[in-house]
Description:
The chain is an alpha+beta fold. 19% of the residues lie in helices and 32% in strands. It has a two-stranded antiparallel sheet. The protein has a two-stranded antiparallel ribbon with strand order 3-4. Residues 475-497, 523-551 are annotated as: Disordered.
Amino acid sequence: MQQLPAALPGWFELSAALTSAVGAVSSAGGCCPENQVAIGSICCPRGLLCGLPGQQSCCQAPSICVGGTQCANLGTAGSLFTPDQIATQQQLQAATPECQGDTILIKGRCCAPGSVCNGGCCSSTETCFRGLTCCNLVQQCGTSCCPAGQVCLGGSSCCPTNQVCSNNVCCPTGTQCVNGQCCPNTNVCGSSSALVCCSSQEQCDPIGGQCCQIGGVLPGGGCCTPANVCGPNCCQQGQQCLNANTCCNTKDICGGNTCCQAGQQCLDNSVCCNAGQVLCSGSCCSGQCVAGVCCDPSLVCGSTCCAAGQQCMNGNMCCSAGQVCGSTCCPSGNVCINNQCAPAGSTPCGGSICAPGQFCAGSQCCPSGTTICGGSCCNTGNCINSVCASSGSFSCGGTICSSGSQCCGSVCCSGGQSCGPNNQCCTPGQWGCGGGGWGQGSGWNTGWGSGGVGGFPGVWGGGVRPGWGRHLLAGDEQQQQQQQQQQQQRDDGEQQEREVMVVHTAADEGVQHGFLGRQLLLESQENERHAHPAAATAAAAGVVQEGEADS
């Protein structure tokens, strides 16, 4: 028997346990080789020893011990551990008091001698495959032990489970078995429970799980002839694709790119409208098209369409409710007064309308800033005795005198005149007006020099006359001055007409006094002619000249 090394730990403790295994004697009386164990009358190689102690048997090649209890023929299993390797392993990993029988401690487990494999302990469903690794029986494949997830095909090759196809064909990497055929992964289509393999001329519809012609997969799922694909739709026979997204029956196409729906009609070959509608400015109109505007029938007003809230007037004019004024529509910004349109700010005034900036005085419109005088407007603001007088006018008794005149009792004397006796207007220097001569201060010559007979100046009793006696006393120079004053009086004729009522009163008296003065003058001239013939002739000529000047 071979001598074990003295340095082997636990040798003396294991010697009794190894007596039956090392240098055993067979029942035939012979000694078994050092690498064999006596089993009955035969010597069994240690790698073929199989079974529990006392029930061990020797497996015959090519069978091996599976699970330490059963001999099994697994085909060509390859080289096993040599008996020396097993014995050495048992010695090095000797059983401890925790392990029973002939089991030994392998990495914390009590392992039967037949389960020890390359430093590990195989499970009951594994064997030590080729002395290298523990391998399940179903994974042992020729010279290989198939890894988890693979199966042995033909007893010689390992194949992933999802690549195993019919007739024990293992599909190559990048493919999988679909319906008994190896299919490229890029062509596999459908769910795991219903896979299909698309051909090179097809593409997968991932939603429907089906193979379609290339270019015939619809976005929402489904297959379509590539030429009939129209966006998300598949056009049928008799339809045409419009705008790359709508399938339209050929008879419903309107204007080349519009598809009318059921119940619609194509108007002007451009717009689809519902039945009863009309085309108005390129759009469908359910009312009446008026001047290019779709108008509700209730708002049609002649050739115009009124807006909401407007009223049709006279059948041809739209008017907002706030602008209706009788039978007229007021312009924007106007107001309605007495059924008449007026600018904003106007006010009613009796039967009239005052414009903005005016105010009503009774029934008359007056400009702003004016005053009311006697019920009427007074622009000058000079109201005298309820009469609107010109600026600068003033009251003179019951009369109104203009600016520049002089009040004489109740008579207005014009410029250059003064108030004579008995409140009569006279020109200074005239007879009876402080100028000397006949009748001075007596008043009889005043009537002759003012007023007029029948209202005609320059006739007896009208105008201021110089008198023959004044001519004799004053001389030629005074006569010329008197004529100039008379011319000034004619220029003031307009002022005398305004005072005609007052003047007429004085004229009535003047006629009487003037007639008397005329008689006295004639008598005086007659006496003078007899006494001084030359002077009388000159005086007569002066009277004639004065008369001609008055005429």
